[in-house]
């Protein structure tokens, strides 16, 4: 008996123009377009194996080895159902209903096609997914997770569709997941159709267009349980007096400005828009009743460092060379070009001593390691030096590619169709 | 020789609808109207003595015993010059230029008038001012300070003008000072005239209208030097994409809503608007390039306490019973009605233990003192308990009256025309 199985990995993406607000909560249609950078799967990824088998009694899913409940009508159920529907519509239904003997040649052909095209859409699936970054890191894993889910099913089902089409389905799992279907710089176009068929991801530029775009993730400790983005954004939609102005008058011009900055590789313009939009997202969160805060004093201090770093850089005529951005949590993601990463790591470590040392995956620092220091002309009084642990960790990564098809050796499911036990 | 001297005190005011942004930085004309509650001078006040004397060689001013430089064209010089101009225009110029002998009765009359109306506008002034609250408390003293300055000069000059007229001059010292010319609830109407003559304070309701309106000021420690409001607000005007929407579409309806809430003594509505406008002021500050933060983690925690306190209250059908508001710093001012002050002090002290104990000026707690506890049904997990000192002090006060004329025994100037040495 043939085994129908596929494994894919998908990347994390971090938005420069933020998604905050839905116009349709079931279909996950946003109130504004957004744009992100896809990060490198060599460092951060979700990996998912999907198998379809007539012996399976129901759809089941394990996340990091633990079975999740696939709720009827829930987001996972919707994505799986939509993928099965596409399989049927785009693959199975395009086969004739009944083999018809037209000629000897045709009989042979149809038989072969039918053999290579079983009715997988009618089988239940077992799905195992694994994130290579700890949940404690506070990085949203739903984007890479749903992108990997959809990608592995697309591979399993041999769907002849574009990543944009898959993004329509990933979007219904988690809005920002749609942007993880491409590498490089990716826009989620909000669309206007009530059925959401034009609310999808498009690639603005591939990774190869600006490969020096690096990212430093500062994982910030937080003792406060934050508001979930799902409930928070709808409270903003319902109560913020400023959000509609942002949607109608600010985001459209920022989408155009940052797309132009990316196309011309203008880091200063990219940074200006990225930071302004992070600020504005947190501003509308604060303009919500009751107000929502995601950044804390550590987040604020990191902003002060980047603002001062850029001030020095602009004074030298070099423009902005770093851009902070914050999602629905206190972690900072700092975009910068490869040539500046060393200075920025030194800067962050100076104010936020690291307990575990900096994991120098790009080999920037050699044996001396990170000292913790500021660039010349930097006003050290813009922030105080924090205790070790305020920034729990630093992850250095860069722009990356879209979902990858992985070989059978990467499978997360064993021969028995259940998750393998993974080494920690 | 007669002594021409007057002493006045003036109150602090804390805005519910925030002033943030000038359309004219010289005349201090705001981009939107604002509204505040005047606090009780029995607790927080600036006191100012002004003396005019032909022997003085220049205008001089001492603040808390230390001489300040009255810069040409600066805000203090403008206020003093404007007050002298009013003295001349409203008092001195209304006397005939030359005594004319028309009848015996008239000669006598004019002589008397001239004796009681010396040309004080031509004399230099010595001014001593004193704030009874420490600068370290982080309370803006410029509002009460300029209001006391203008009030003492108005008294010295025997000006037959309304507080609204005086507010035009105090406004040029410090925008929000204009609101300290009245007690109770005070609006600063933005006005439309380029010369600013309609940008003045009007009383919405006197103190006696809602005497149970109390305020608890939480003085919050901060290790970060904040952005001055003068420079901060203009950066917001120049760079925030949201401020213009706030000015044109949000503030006008909030001014109407809070005025109606005050008139009908509807605390729930008053609280809702007050908190929303505090949030929005900090939202547009954050929407500034680079972003401005005034609240810190302690401020955020106090918000979380008030939000939860109100949630419990609303669940009981009592509506909101507390309203936080934050100016350009981390201190919280909590408005509440007298009957709720005890609960709120207990709540704040539970999370923010006090080093020096609570100064119970209204005698609420008796011998047992403050225990630190929450109301029934309160979710204690909304904030963590902080170390003693995170909230440095609590000041309990209430709504108060406008500037007061004080007797000669309160004079801050000695017989020699120089500041008395004040006991600390």
UniProtKB/TrEMBL annotation, chains A, B:
Substrates-to-products reaction catalysed: (R)-5-diphosphomevalonate + ATP = isopentenyl diphosphate + ADP + phosphate + CO2
Pfam family, one: MDD_C
Domain named Diphosphomevalonate decarboxylase-like N-terminal: residues: 10-201
GO molecular function annotations of the record: ATP binding; diphosphomevalonate decarboxylase activity
First-level EC class: lyase
Enzyme Commission no: 4.1.1.33
Pathway it works in: Isoprenoid biosynthesis; isopentenyl diphosphate biosynthesis via mevalonate pathway; isopentenyl diphosphate from (R)-mevalonate: step 3/3
Keyword Hydrolase: no
Entry keyword Transcription: no
SUPFAM superfamilies named among the record's database cross-references: GHMP Kinase, C-terminal domain (SSF55060), Ribosomal protein S5 domain 2-like (SSF54211)
Record-linked InterPro entries: GHMP_kinase_C_sf (IPR036554), Mev_decarb (IPR005935), Mev_diP_decarb (IPR029765), MVD-like_N (IPR053859), Mvd1_C (IPR041431), Ribosomal_Su5_D2-typ_SF (IPR020568), Ribsml_uS5_D2-typ_fold_subgr (IPR014721)
Domain Mvd1 C-terminal: 215-405
GO biological process: isopentenyl diphosphate biosynthetic process, mevalonate pathway; sterol biosynthetic process
Similarity comment: Belongs to the diphosphomevalonate decarboxylase family.
NCBIfam families named in the record: mevDPdecarb
Name of this protein: Diphosphomevalonate decarboxylase
Taxonomic lineage of the native organism: Eukaryota, Fungi, Dikarya, Basidiomycota, Agaricomycotina
